[in-house]
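To whoever picks this up:

The nightly regression suite flagged Mitochondrial import inner membrane translocase subunit TIM50 as changed. Nothing in the input moved, so I suspect the structure step. Input below, exactly as stored in the fixture:
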Amino acid sequence: MPMLLLPIARQLCRASSSPLVRMAAPAVLSAVSQHELKRNLHYSSTMLDAKKKKEGPKSILTDDLLAKAGLDVDEMNAKKDGTGEEKESSSHEGEAEEEGSGEAKTRKKRSRKTSTDIKREKYANWFYIFSFSGLAGGALYMTRDWDASEPEEIKKDIGNGYSAGLMYQRFKARFNSMFTYFQEPPFPDLLPPPPPAPYQRPLTLVITLEDFLVHSEWSQKYGWRTAKRPGVDYFLGYLSQYYEIVLFSSNYMMYGEKIAEKLDPLHAFISYNLFKEHCVYKDGVHIKDLSKLNRDVNKVLIIDTEPNNYKLQPENAIPVKPWDGKADDELLRLIPFLEYLATQQTEDVKPILNSFHDKYELPEEFNNRVIKLREKFEKDQKLKQDGNWALKALGVATNLTGQGSKFPLDLIREEGEKNYVRFMKLIEEEKEKMRIQQEQMSGQTFTLKDYVEGNIPTPEEQMQAQLEKQKEIDELFEQKKKEKAQEQQKQ
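Regenerated output under the current build:
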């Protein structure tokens, strides 16, 4: 209504000549103007509040800050535009969608890149260029002619020259040799050279550890437990007088070394310990290559439970079934054959091993052969005694032929048992000596105060003290040895 009165009041003020009307017109105009001003202010404040509600609170994180932080600003804005609030009217909604889609398109076209992003891309491009150049230069360097220091097995059937074919062959050979480095043992010779002839054993015996000498199993109640097979100590001690024993574990050193130390703490029976790290990795399996032992392969035997372990030299192997932890006498049954083989001055073990039909039953088959030889030997001895009637009549046949009537393998066994008893006696004495030495040496220590005050003796003085201490230990050991011998004589 006030909007309609405003033009009428203005017309009356202009057209009327009455003083009364002219006096009342300004009052009417003033009232109408004030009312219109209030209405406009109220409408403007209402529009501002609606706009603030529509826009919501503004964040202090600008697009530049978000881009420097590594966020995708364009994607965030596009999602924000796609999930905007509802418009008051359908026309406003259409306009907002068109504006939002237009802004999103312009943002997609415009890629935000900070100075850090530009530096990053620049360094990445240089990295790619240098990497590609290094690879290309390395590949070209691997196609060069052969060096004199390179092994002959890599150069085999590949000559020098800079033709495409020869360069590719040299590159391929060198590239493959890089991978064979990880497939070969750490050293070309796993064992040092053998000792001189008087101290050298005639044959080398390679024995596996897991499921042959020991058996490990895990249970929820006890965890990991390792059992030692019956007869292990006798097996190792007795055969050590005939063989150079090499313990070749199928496990890694960090697991197998502790068990090997417990089997032979004095290193009296086992000459060397090898582990999985010393195997050859080929065709997806670890192989115990006997040619890497620095020994004559014809004089090396291997006893193992896994055929893949000796697949490179199967003719040198004595296969055995894995031990499950139950008590048996399989180790003792192997001793007669191994003893016979070592005492026959064998030059090549392969023909002897291949003479057995089933190597898994080698102890039983060898025992059957010994029984037949014993029967034949006894018959021959009986014929000799019956044929020598003159000596028999004089009663001296028994004295002359008594020593020769023993079976040769029995003589070998008797001699081996005597040597084993003497050897074990030395081992026990050495253990007692080591025990006394540990007791005497346990109190000889130096404190931090001695190092600070300089009370540490010189190396020459320490050596002299050790020699004197060792002399005292030897005298103490001999005294206890005499006392023990006297006690045995009294008993």
